[in-house]
Write a structure and sequence with these properties.
Blueprint lengths: L2 E10 L2 E10 L8 E9 L2 H8 L15 E9 L9 E5 L14 E4 L5 E2 L6 H23 L9 E3 L5 H12 L4 E5 L5 H7 L3 E4 L15 E6 L3 H9 L1 E9 L13 H5 L3 E4 L7 H14 L2 H6 L1 E5 L3 H9 L6 E5 L2
Parallel strand pairs: 8-9, 8-11, 9-10, 11-12, 12-13, 14-15
Antiparallel strand pairs: 1-2, 3-4, 3-6, 3-15, 4-5, 5-7
Helix pairs in contact: 1-9, 2-3, 2-7
Length: about 325
């Protein structure tokens, strides 16, 4: 047993404190696999945890970070052995279980999946929960029977992590992608990922009408609240919206009109507790279908000691695309 570097959140009388310090391996939580972490990433949820702007962290002290890629160091789980390359997304990591912004974690082997061949550790975390969630959204739309010949697909929060990958995946699958953003200066970035049209965020944040003009057959929403309600009101007959985020709020000020008059479906997508078979399918498809050049174009890399600063930036809407965190 020894110590390792980690970012640790502690509870205080006025909220929480966040610091970079040595953490004792003896204080790791229960699990049957110990992983040496090489890389993590920065998601909106991580920013909320680091800043305390939402009650993401459920126990203290907490090491934040919901994603990791690394190498098994020790295992009593029959599915994994020392030296295996693995990925972990979700399962309460960084919320109820000590997370990924550390050089080591101890977790349940059932939470891990093998890192697929064909992607490096850096690429795996460039994808991270954001990219994996975007793929789950695409898969949900496909299970609903939607194909590109039905009409355009919309993506909200398109400059963010989930949005950026969703734009690239939908475009690669043949969809005419309408990317919604409040950052019109990033139009060239979004078109480089495959967006055919750029939609000003203001067109989806105004008062919600029961039904609007039919504009798209499918959509991926990362925002929630009035944005999602407007998105639904403008969805074509028989279309569907896959929703996976709440950056704009948890409420949904919508009417039943799109559902009962246009046969529109709202598809909820969860990445935290998704079954292992679904995770493996999503990751295998990401390796095959996500353009590695586009992934590189949306990715930046920071060291672990910059995560606290980056957490402030992501909740302020100043982060574009994906951020890989180098742990080692």
């Amino acid at each position: 047993m020894g110590t390792f570097k980690a970012i640790v959140i502690d509870k205080t009388d006025t909220g929480q404190s966040v610091g970079f310090r040595e953490f004792d391996e003896a204080d790791l939580m229960e699990g049957d696999v110990t992983v040496r972490v090489s890389h993590s990433t920065l998601n909106y949820k991580d920013g909320l945890a680091l800043t305390g702007m939402a009650p993401v962290v459920r126990r203290f002290p907490m090491i934040p970070g919901v994603d990791l890629v690394g190498t098994v160091e020790a295992s009593s789980n029959p599915e994994f052995k020392a030296g295996d390359p693995v990925i972990l997304n979700g399962w309460g990591l960084g919320e109820t279980h000590l997370g990924a912004y550390a050089e080591k974690v101890r977790v349940k082997g059932d939470w891990l999946i093998p890192r697929p061949e064909g992607i490096s550790p850096e690429q795996a975390m460039a994808i991270g929960t954001a990219g994996y969630t975007a793929m789950l959204c695409l898969m949900a739309l496909e299970r609903h029977g939607l194909k590109p010949d039905r009409g355009p697909a919309s993506v909200t929060g398109a400059v963010g992590g989930v949005g950026s990958v969703a734009v690239a995946l939908l475009a690669k699958a043949g969809w005419h992608v309408i990317a919604s953003t409040g950052r019109p200066e990033e139009a060239d970035y979004l078109k480089g990922l495959g967006a055919a049209e750029i939609l000003e965020r203001s067109e989806l944040t105004g008062p919600v009408r029961p039904l609007g003009k039919e504009r798209w057959a499918a959509g991926v929403d990362t925002v929630g609240s009035a944005t999602l309600a407007n998105l639904l009101s403008m969805t074509r007959y028989g279309g569907a919206i896959a929703t996976c985020g709440l950056a704009g709020g948890m409420d949904l000020p919508a009417s039943v009109a799109p559902f009962i008059l246009r046969n529109v479906a709202l598809l909820g997508v969860d990445s935290v507790m998704a079954p292992k078979a679904l995770r493996i399918e999503a990751w295998d498809r990401l390796v095959r279908e996500l353009d590695h050049a586009k992934l590189a174009a949306m990715t930046s890399t920071i060291p672990l000691d910059r995560v606290m600063e980056a957490g402030q930036e992501i909740v302020a809407g100043r982060i574009k695309g994906r951020v890989v965190v180098e742990i080692g």
